Amino acid sequence: MTQFLPAQTRPGRLSLAVADPYAVSSFYQDVVGLDQFGYTESSATLGAGETPLVELTDGSDREPRTDAQAGLYHVAFRYPSQEALGAALHRVESLYRLDGATDHGVTHSLYLTDPAGNGVELFVDQPRADWPENEAGEVTMQTQPLDLDALRGAGEPETDAPAGTTIGHFHLEVTDLAGATEFYRDGLGLDISREIGDMARFLAVGDAHHHLGLTTYQERTEPATGRGLDWIEFLTPTEAALEAARERFEAIGVAVESRENGFAVTDPDGIGVRLSLADQ
After folding, report:
1. What's the pLDDT at 280?
2. Strand bridging mode 262-266 / 272-277
3. Boundaries of each VOC domain copy (predicted)?
4. So what's the pLDDT on residue 47?
5. Upper half-sphere CA count for residue 15 (Cβ side, 13 Å)
6. How many angstroms separate the Cα of 37 from the Cα of each of 25, 64, 125, 161, 165?
């Protein structure tokens, strides 16, 4: 049993339970730029190229998420170029509203909130050689204003996100940082890439800045039972990696449910997590 997932592991999809799938689907099409792969009265699937990224389900029978509940802080869509992020900025400014824009050193990032109240980040990675590091040689993330004029100039208005757009990371608000870290590190097999005291852990595979953020900034105290995030998915390249992760979860007492292409577990805050075999 290996300790961590292979470096080729990456985020896959996420599922959101929302009161109005139609309105939320329009946001992910028109603003994020995703294609609609399928739509019914109660669900929608959207993605880029041939890759599904977001599944929306009818959550009208659930209560809205409260300020005390754990869940999604944001889902981060990674565009393949500065030009694609510039095009996204044109869409945001013409059709929606921007909550914030930050130069993190490792990324250029735009922040929004979807019509259902879920946080959304649109970003592009910066060249690896330009990532800021501390004196110990560890990658750090800065918080500087993003030059929006330069970003507008980098892209032309485009209606669609290009093929190669993926989910870059998930950022979760958790109730217990130690318990969540045990689940995602010791069970799933992500490695810690950065820590901020007792408030945040960032985890990844390979040399990514992060594939998952866990934070307690909002001091959430209850599990994720309302509308919002249902599950997140990671894709891994081999059956051996799936089996090793299954054994890790079983070793820490987490129930594992087999699926056709992998398995599903539930994190300490009630959020579903899927590990699936990536298409080769």
Report:
1. 58
2. antiparallel
3. 10-125, 166-280
4. 97
5. 14
6. 11, 27, 26, 14, 15
Q: 10-residue block means of pLDDT along the chain (280 residues)?
A: 88 97 94 93 92 96 96 98 96 96 93 97 91 77 91 88 97 98 97 91 92 96 97 97 97 96 98 92
Question: Which two tokens mark 176?
Answer: 């217990």
CA gap 8, 205 in Å, rounded: 8
Question: Of 78, 83, 113, which is closest to residue 96 (Cα–Cα)?
Answer: 113
Q: How far from chain centre, in Å, is Cα 252?
A: 24
CA distances from 272 to 13, 183, 265 (A): 12, 12, 6
Average pLDDT of the chain is: 94
CB atoms within 10 A of CB 128: 11
What residue spans define the domains of the chain? 10-277
Q: Give me the pLDDT at residue 140, please.
A: 77
**Residue 48, token pair as written in the block:** 């880029």
The pLDDT of residue 254: 98
Q: How many other C-beta atoms lie within 10 A of the C-beta of residue 35?
A: 19
Q: How far apart are CA 261 and CA 127, in angstroms?
A: 34
Q: Supply angle C-alpha 92, 93, 96, rounded to 5.
A: 55
CA distances from 36 to 71, 169, 170, 230 (A): 25, 21, 21, 20
- The number of residues making up the chain comes to 280
How, if at all, do strands 191-196 and 166-173 pair? Answer: unpaired
Query: Token match 């754990």: residue?
Result: 70
Superfamily of domain 10-277: 2,3-Dihydroxybiphenyl 1,2-Dioxygenase, domain 1 (3.10.180.10)
Closest to 168 (Cα-Cα) out of 119, 215, 209: 209
Token pair, residue 241, equals 């990696």
